[in-house]
Design brief:
Keywords: Hydrolase. The protein is of the alpha+beta class. Helices cover about 25% and strands about 25% of the residues.
Length: about 600
């Protein structure tokens, strides 16, 4: 992970002006240009904010709002080089007649106070208070929009969920609708590869710890100290006091070691992942027009986008591409070669701003629409239902000698000896965002630690669109285990390419109709009351939904399903090295359900 990667999110996404902040009791008289000020939250906490106003503020204007925990702006030393890109982007929006408000979340940047965790109750309340503050200003026409990427995408979703009358539209890009299931604990297994590094990075930001931040950037501490002073202060003499107040911030890395279930509090008396998730606050009939961008290859953002689509019936456009986090790189694993140019990210933001402009201009709320690209084709399709009506399930049986086919399998069993070194690499869908790099998987033909089943070469192109589901009749030799399954494409030369994956900790295997916050495919809740201990050797059926995808497997290629007991570079090692998984085959045996799209 590097500061450059998170800075790139803010530089591409400082277009991404998401939302939240604080409150002030009196309107603030400001002229054109940028102003660094404090906005006072309801409990008196001072939140550092930058406000950019157009040259002509005689007529009130709408506001684009951003709440960040990555510093709303950086104070550079000397010339700063190309340092002020946040300023350039803000000025671009100001030139289009918008006011821009960027706020450091409490406990971060130059703001005072302490953070009790991401998207916490204080932060959510601060967002509503900042909305109140904006509409009280003489330069505000009472209309606010949010545009955010990643963490700031969640804050944009949360201001939309606040039902504040000022919020007219939001754009959320690559956010985590369910941070537990789609980022921190997929399948109930801790994503320590990402969360440990992200926690260390953000803690260093909150301390303005130049030497630690330099290690994330791949440079020396003196080099960084010579270029960057820290977060932009409101009043220079206040910055040290603001940073000192951050000492009471939640130690997130330590807190996560005590989390097993979605309803476990991050700290004593604190909130859980259940409480901070956007899905928890979004009303089913949410009326705020939303443009939501995600990717089949970026963590669980596509699963979150589809869950938002299914659970909220308000005006929404969902777009799912094949991008890396933030939409920076084209990462389609089935296109060879990839297009020479990276995705037109500038075009993505132009579309976002057009969407927001239309809603601010009084255009009708958008019709619900889901746009998605198919891996291996680069073709975009549009639907109003998910999965599309042309999709039907195809059930493939896991059979002897590594065969995967239609129909019934012969009775028998296959055994995997778990190899603790099994990995998908350091540039996978979960970790590439740490470095700001493309998502890349090595050829998996000879990857260690896998047990695989493969079809015969396909007679025709097969498009898989939706959520593949693996049902395993399984016995494990350990008292708990993490089970990982991968859908792969094997070409006519044997090269094997990753398509998607799913994972599940045995402790979380129970399913049921437990209401909001459950996975819609299985009804899995990840809550403590629904945990099921496992007795070694017990035969269980595991229902493992893979992350959704749309992918074309070309004629002549084969479909492979692989099983592993861990992913060493990414996930916590739940399964002991050398433990065994026994997979049962036969008429009531293990299967792969593929959602196959029969449309041309």
């Amino acid at each position: 992970m590097s500061l450059r990667s998170f800075r790139s999110w803010n530089l591409l996404a400082a277009a991404c002006l998401a939302a939240c902040g604080g409150e002030a009791s009196e309107p603030t008289p400001l002229g054109p240009g940028r102003h660094s000020i404090y906005v006072t939250a309801a409990d008196g906490t001072r939140l550092a904010a930058d406000v950019w106003l157009p040259a002509d503020t005689e007529a009130p204007v709408p506001t684009m709002l951003r709440l960040t925990r990555y510093w709303r702006a950086t104070e550079y030393l000397g010339d700063g080089g190309a340092a002020d890109q946040e300023e350039m982007l803000a000025n671009l929006y100001v030139a289009q007649g918008l006011a821009v408000v960027a706020v450091d979340a409490r406990g971060t940047g130059a703001s005072f106070g302490a953070s009790t965790g991401p998207w916490n109750a204080d932060e959510r309340a601060d967002g509503v208070a900042v909305l109140d503050w904006i509409v009280d200003q003489p330069w505000s026409n009472g209309q606010v929009v949010g545009l955010g990427v990643s963490y700031e995408g969640n804050t944009a979703a949360l201001i939309a969920a606040s039902e504040h009358p000022a919020v007219k539209a939001v754009v959320t890009r690559f956010h985590d609708h369910d941070p537990f299931a789609h980022l921190a604990f997929p399948g109930g297994i801790a994503n320590i590869g990402f969360m440990d590094q992200w926690s260390a990075y953000t803690a260093a930001l909150d301390r303005n710890d130049a030497c630690t931040l330099a290690t994330f950037e791949g440079r020396t501490c003196p080099e960084r100290q010579a270029e960057i002073a820290g977060p932009r202060p409101v009043l220079p003499d206040d910055l040290a006091a603001a940073l000192a107040s951050h000492a009471d911030n939640l130690d997130l890395a330590a807190a996560l070691t005590g989390v097993t279930f979605k309803d476990d509090p991050l700290a004593a008396g604190g909130e859980s992942f259940d409480a901070i998730a956007p899905y928890r606050w979004a009303a089913e009939g949410a009326a705020v027009p939303t443009l939501l961008t995600a990717s089949w290859m970026d963590g669980g953002t596509a699963a979150g986008a589809l869950d938002a689509w299914a659970s909220q019936d308000g005006p929404m456009i969902v777009e799912i591409g094949a991008y890396s986090h933030g939409g920076i790189f084209d990462c389609d694993p089935l296109r060879d070669p990839l297009p020479a140019a990276d995705p037109a990210i500038a075009t993505q933001y132009v579309q976002a701003l057009q969407f927001l402009g239309e809603q601010l201009g009084g255009a009708p709320a958008p019709a619900r629409e889901l746009r998605y690209v198919t891996l291996g084709e680069g073709t975009w399709r549009t639907t109003t239902t998910w999965p599309p009506p042309s999709v039907t399930p195809r059930i493939l049986a896991l059979d002897a000698r590594g065969s995967l086919h239609d129909g019934v399998a012969d009775a028998g069993e296959d055994t995997l000896v778990v190899d603790g070194s099994a990995t998908t690499g350091r540039e996978n869908r979960w970790l590439a965002a740490l470095q700001g790099t493309p998502v890349r998987y090595p050829d998996r033909a000879a990857a260690p630690g896998l047990l695989s089943w493969t079809t015969e070469p396909l007679d025709a192109d097969t498009r898989v669109t939706g959520t593949p589901v693996v049902r395993l009749q399984l016995r494990a030799s350990a008292a708990d285990a993490g089970v990982f399954v991968y859908l792969e494409d094997v070409d006519d030369h044997g090269a094997t390419r990753y398509v998607t994956e799913g994972q599940l900790r045995l402790l979380h295997r129970a399913t049921g109709d437990w209401g909001p916050g459950r996975e819609r495919v299985t009804g899995r809740s990840y809550r403590r009351a629904d945990a099921h201990d496992y007795a070694p050797g017990e035969l269980v059926e595991l229902v493992i939904p893979l992350l959704p995808t749309s992918a074309r497997i070309a004629a002549g290629h084969r479909i492979r399903l692989s099983l592993a007991g861990g992913d060493a570079d990414t996930f916590a090692p739940i399964t002991p090295d050398g433990a065994t998984f026994t997979v049962l085959r036969g008429p009531a045996g293990s299967t792969l359900e593929l959602p196959v799209d029969g449309a041309p």
